[in-house]
Amino acid sequence: MHAYELTGPGLDRLERRSYPDPERPSSGRVLVRMRAAGLNYLDLAVAHGQYPAATYPVIPIMDGAGEVIEIGPEVWQVAVGDRVVVNCKPRWFAGAGTSAVTSHGRGLNAAGSLVEVAHLDAASLVKVPDHLSWEEAASLPVAAMTAWRGLEAGAIGPASTVVLLGTGGVSVYALQLAKTRGARVIITSSSDKKLERARSLGADATVNYRQQPEWDAAVRDLTGGRGADLVMETVGGPDFGRSVTAVRYGGLVFAVGFVAGGSANVDLLSLIGNGVRVEGTNGGSVADLAAAVDAIAAHRIQPVIDRTFTMAGLLRAYPLMAEGGHFGKIAIRLDWENS
């Protein structure tokens, strides 16, 4: 069968391989023919050797969707023919995370999605709604689940205000899911065109941070001085402190990403004096992913795919992620015959 393997840091070390066909699945295991993959910033960090937990060689890319083609004994979660996504942390089934389950990640130190047939634990799979394409389904595991966890952690409801930084996959899913909860959403971007698109998806207010670098002050103005209930912190870096000053007393900064860097300066007096909660996240459980997928199915949310690449265009997908010029998710169609 076909697969891509990242033999070390650098996209020049992403190589196509032929592997033996997988054995028949044992108890609790299944075979899934992978149909699509979804690219995340973490995949970019792994490809460039910028994520400490990564090990090489590894089959890359966390997010993936496919069709169950064979099941082993004692499998009750799925059946042959089911369309499924794979949780990014395949050992984290439910409940609070531990270092044992969060340190094991697909495309990180375990085989990811760029493989023709994956041999998986049935308990790591979640069935996907029929209204989603393969590419849309593949966008779910990291972004939709992370957005859902942030909204849950912030207890977001009809009286809540949520701030989203940028228009990547987590932010766009958080926008769509927050609106189903009746929340008010403020979103930032450096592009007026992207902000206009965000408003078409339901954003209540927008801030161009190029024109208003002190976007935390803009959030304060938009909330009558109170601040937001939740900032979905997908950026990190020097502006992390602005997220702290943008939330209300007792509000939550849900730390998701590190696009602008892994270090941050925070005014501790502001954090302490305003009782700000900062919660980091490192993936989520199968139960978290299932809850997000259930919400997407119930509200028939249509995931936003900025661009879909074929396998032949795989090496163009990573630079697009690095540029940050996309809106929503970047998908890869696993069409091995045409690659």
Can you tell me about this structure?
The protein has 339 residues and is an alpha/beta fold. The chain has two domains: 2-139 and 303-338, Medium-chain alcohol dehydrogenases, catalytic domain (Quinone Oxidoreductase, Chain A, domain 1, Alpha-Beta Complex), CATH 3.90.180.10; 144-280, 3-Layer(aba) Sandwich (Rossmann fold), CATH 3.40.50. The chain is 28% helix and 26% strand. The protein contains eleven helices and 15 strands. A hairpin with a 7-residue loop joins strand 1 and strand 2 (14-18). Helix 4 packs across helix 5 (169-180) and helix 7 runs parallel beside helix 8 (240-246). It is globular and about 60 Å long. The two termini are 14 Å apart.
**Distance between the amino and carboxyl termini:** 14 Å
Order of helices and strands: EEEHEEHEEHHEHEHEHEHEHEHEHE
Q: Low-confidence parts lasting 5 or more residues at pLDDT below 50?
A: none
For the residues shown, what is the average pLDDT? 93
Q: Please state the second-level CATH architecture of the largest domain.
A: Alpha-Beta Complex
Provide a quick synopsis of the model.
The protein is an alpha/beta fold and 339 residues long. It has helices spanning 41-47, 99-102, 134-138, 140-153, 169-180, 192-200, 215-222, 240-246, 268-273, 286-298, 314-323, and strands at residues 2-6, 14-18, 29-39, 63-71, 83-86, 117-121, 125-127, 161-165, 184-189, 205-208, 228-233, 247-255, 277-280, 305-310, 329-333.
